[in-house]
Amino acid sequence: VDLSAAVAASSRCFSSAQEAIANTQLDEPPGVSRLASAAAAALDASASAGAGAGASDCAAADDTAADDAARTTATTRADAHAIGVLEHSPASFTDRVRRSRHQPRLQIVGEEEVRERRRVAQAEAEANDPGMEGIRLALAALEMRRGQLYNPYSFNDSQHDRALESRQRNNEIMAVDREVGRYKADLLSTAKRGDAASLPMGRRLLSGFFEPLTRALEAEQECVRFKIPGPDRKVYGPFLQMIKAEKLAVVTMHVVVSALMKGEHALVAEHPQAGVVKFVRIVEMLGEAVQAEVNLGRLKQRARLMQDAAAEKELDKTRDVAESVTSADDMIKRKPHLTERFTGNDFTRKLKVLKDVRSVTKYARMALDDADWGNSARVKVGAALLNCLLNSAKIQIPGPDGEFTFYDDEGELRDVPEVPAFHHSYANHRGQRYGTVNWHSAFFLCVEDDAMVRATLAPVRYMPMLTPPRPWTRFNAGGYLRSESMVMRGHYTIHGPSKPQLMALHRAQIRAEEEGRLPPFQKVLDALNVLGNTAWVINTDVLEVIEEVWERGGNMANVPPRAHLEPPTWPRQNFCLRSDTNRNQLLATGLPSGREISQFISGLNRVKQENSELHSQRCDFLIKLQMAKEMRDEEEIYFPHNIDFRGRAYTMHVHLNHLGSDLCRGALLFAKARPLGNNGLDWLYIQAANLYGGGIDKLPMEERRDWIKMRVNLLEDAARNPLGPEGTFWLEAEDPWQCLAACKEITKARASGDPEAYLCRLPVHQDGSCNGLQHYAALGRDEAGGEQVNLVPRMQPGDVYTGIAKVLREIVAADMLNGGDPETQKLAHELAPHIDRKLVKQTVMTSVYGVTHVGARSQIQNRLKERDAIMNETLRYQIANYAATRTMDALSNLFTNAREVMAWLTECARVTCAKGEAVKWTTPLGLPVVQPYRLKGRKVIRTLVQNMILSYDSETGGVDKNKQRSAFPPNYIHSIDSAHMMMTAVACSEAKLTFAGVHDSFWTHAGDVPEMSKIIREKFIELHSEPLLERLYEELKATYPHLAHELPPPPPSGKLDLEKVRESLYFFS
Asked: Catalytic annotation on 1008?
């Protein structure tokens, strides 16, 4: 196919856009993203159908871009040099954020050297990559960061839908602008505290300039060591030798960057100006900081000597010279009156509270003879450090086109010149001339743009949408309207998922597009689109009750109390006789005893902790309440979804959604109402029973329904007056707010006169029975274990926790009769009375997620402690240790095949990561998965000013073998259960059912529960009818051919008949 016509059309499109931009004198071209998308579409179209369609697409995009450019107005910016970075007036996000994305403000010289280690590691991979996947990945990442500008009206053509979409777009813009304002306010307050180096931009400067400054200081120390002549080097040289160059670098950068961003030491103290500081003041601050660092090292040396004099002989010879400048014993001898004051444990405790330069200086002057170096020496030390920084810190400023390269007069490509990041100059003020230290003017825009970039990455996008989300069409295209999002979430890179994971997604996407087919994980995207298109509304009936509970002070139905807990009062004591410390005599005193004081302090600390936790709970509650109040009048709201690296779906909005707490779920209803039909009311009764809990949810279905029907008058009282004396039924439920919503819906249906025709919006849940073990049992065809988790029909719902407790009793009973081991026999007798369902529940539940013996022991120990069962701590520990071992034995006895599958997965991960490989596999829906667990490489440099942690890119570090091994079995199971949920979601959508999913809990309308239940079982059978373990085994051998001979084959399967799941009533119930 000839692509030349499409390429030419693409070039014409960009030329037209540039002309339109030039005509309107814009700072940034709003149509570039659209042009890029249209040009790419033209190339794709020409590859399949010729160049004509591509040219027409580009022409249409050209017209749209020109229209956008004509509608956009130019913005102005105040002079950064005059008003400083902290005083810039905030402009809107749409006017400036894309300029910061396309045109970097500066480049730190030496920053690339810090990353050289990563580049070398990547070079070998790229050299063997004929498809240049690395370049394509970089281009895709850049495209993801561009704003999403496409046709302004992408949904139905009705005026109502247009208005909603316009509101949604404006909401996203305003949310970003609010985040920018909040970030800048934080920047201002942080700078005023003098802690500006802890800001993101400050940390970048510290990291970028660290290595070149360290090298410059090491060179200066070498000059001092070899006595190379230099101005004042004899004066400041000995002091520079007292601290390692790394510490000096951190101190220097922290003091200088904080002072420049704070701006209080400029020429006019009344008018702080960021980016300028007096030379004299900055060198004084540097000298004082270094002096305090040296003195703190000496004080710590004394503390060590006083604690263990013998350890001094074996001290590490690489310690800073400052720590051995003088002998602590000599100092004490010269100041005998300080012997008691500055020795022993009291001295060590005082050192722990020295947190700043001022406190260390004050304390050192009392404890050390030569703590004060003198102003002259401090200034010279500060000047030497500042000189190294001025000479070593370099940046590069991009040209007008935003590039760091240019063509010279001879046509050769050259890098833009390096310029100092900081410079020394002079300024006149009130007739006097002052020396100043300034940062480069590019820092103003760089810090400001940092706020913009962080605003686009902040959680401001995670708000409920007023329109259906943009469909997921690629792994990096979908979700919110104006911002590009990744389909996979995470915190491993700035984009979310880890780099190998991102590369795997990108490779699969590109390969599919080149072959003209859908990506292998298209079913995942389809399922996310189904979940995102489910419309919701706020349950105003429940919201009104929530508001009233809060107005009454809270502390009801999991709403936190509005008031703090009152602290305990100081214990009062009448005069009495009490023996003194040595018990030599009786003293008359009115003071409380030591035990009473200890109890008071313990109670006070406990109240402080609880009040701190209550504060966090209030903040979380109020965010959810405010969100519900803002959305209460909306006809429909939507929650766009994405996935984690295992494929599990989550809402991109984090505050108010159906994956949240009971309060969030109770405040939401389906927007679309459906008639209850023949048995919908019965499913509402069952839903109320399940939400009430307390063992009612473990009864057979008919008994759950009848239990609620017998108490329907209590439900109606709760619906009419939920906060009255007769409406307390819902408050006794395990999920009170969802139970209240069910009470109100049942009452309305009964009051309608025709329950079958009643239009119901309440979601009804179908939950898996210990879903992780269900998948394990299905993978291993474990017949006995499958019966416990309801994979086969039963008259009564199976309860795996009760089954494990029963097997545990049998094992413990056998140990009680074992006279050959008296210790085990004793522990068995002690444990036997306390074995029940609750004791083993948490351990059994977390066994699916790879709980260790230590974790299981801790869980059982906590359960015993809650019951006050065994008061002796040592005995309780021994019993918990014994119970954990026997519980795991009971689990293995009951789930034989399932435990073999778990052990096989663990062994496969062990073999894989033993050779330094991350575990990779493909989910049943075609999603490539790469476990992201790697060792964190970092270097900590501790100073008085700041502890600096240099974190190395985790992708260059080795894999975390323990985490890779222990996490693989639960992660694989999560990828299986997510596949089941997504298959069910797509099937329900095809059946015209409303569907929402919370991992292993599937929701739909009450009248549609029977049909959804049928789909759930069919998709589970379809999923596990595939040879999943055999497929995983073959994939692992293909992915790691050099380890194929070490990978064990899957364990033999049991005799479970999966078809029986179709008839199991309590499989999901």
From this structure: no
